[in-house]
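Here is one chain, start to finish.
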Amino acid sequence: MAITTSELPDTASAVLVFAHSRRQVADRAEAELLVAACEWADLHPPESVSDAAAFTMPGGGEHEEPVAGPGAPLVAEFCIPEFGAVLGLSTTAAKQLIGQAVELRHRLPRLWRRVQAGDLPAWRARRVAETTIHAGLSPQAAAYVDAQLAPFAHRTTVSAVDRLVDAAIARYEPARADLEAARAADSRHVTIEDQQVSFAGTMRVTAELDLADALDFGAAVTHGAETLKTLGSEESLDARRAAAVGELARAQLALPLVEEPAVQPSRNQGTPPPARQVVLHVHLTEDDPVARLEPGTLTTLDQVRHWCTRSHTQVVVKPVLDLHQPIECDGYQPSARLREQVILRDRTCVFPWCTRPARACDLDHIVPWETGGPTDTTNLAALCRRHHRLKTHSAWTYQRTGPAAYTWTSPHGHTYDRDPAGTEPG
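Its structure:
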């Protein structure tokens, strides 16, 4: 049971002593969790993978999974989701935790010993392990990082770890260092963070351009912002510059990228290439000022109105699907209408803690088609490919308990209730 405010010490120094002691308890628990993660990996080596299950979908049955860097033990793939589920983690987060634990114990043993001795917080060691895993360091390079960093890991910054990893690559993998240096010589990029949409309906874009391109782009954006002001816009300069980028993009989409030949076949004359279509799935509820964008971002109704009234915007209103009206198909494959209904109902993969959008998922027959399960509203659920394979080839089972509610049972008997609001241990 959580402590209440009235039970806390009533002096400033006593509160600090109490907070410090709780931090030590939490650090000890995190260190023990890493031990548990390694033990779980040891209990599920590649030899435990069974290839007896029939294969019915791309990706195959269970396979051995590399979770840490070169030379570290592999683990059986399907053990990862159960370890994550019991901790309230997604499968991806569970793989990271197990991988960091295995990396520390097998490739960064000095850091591992410091964590288990209680003089290095687990979160600091995990941060280093994640860096060495991501870098794919050779065993010799990882050992170098471990030896150089271990005495100072309790006060080393992220940038210092990155520099040490670069040094290890240069020392022990010179050919790779030369290749990465050549690749890094051109750092130009345009990155659109399309999975991070703000409530106001904005999205972050970062870029690094050639000098001439950057100057031309800046001049075009400045001209566009001035034009918008001339046309009556009362927005701030930054807002007008942002809007000018959108106008530039829409204008470019209506033009050929290269110069057209002077003479074109008559069937092409006067017909510009079609603009690229950008699709937003917007869900509105009567009298609700908040709209939901798939895969789950929220925005205001006023923002949706603004998008719909912009030039070059085509709005398509699809018929409303009754999510409670059963739809049934005769064959194995669901119809487009049935698939859309399941996607709208489930919203994401329905495995515990998974958040992959339903539009990127398979539709799973809860009761398998081969054993008589129908292809209908009540027997289909959205599962991402990873968890579809898990359900098909392992002892995980689930059943539908409500319109968009499911109860899962793990191989070791733990249960989890899943609905659009999230996951709750059973």
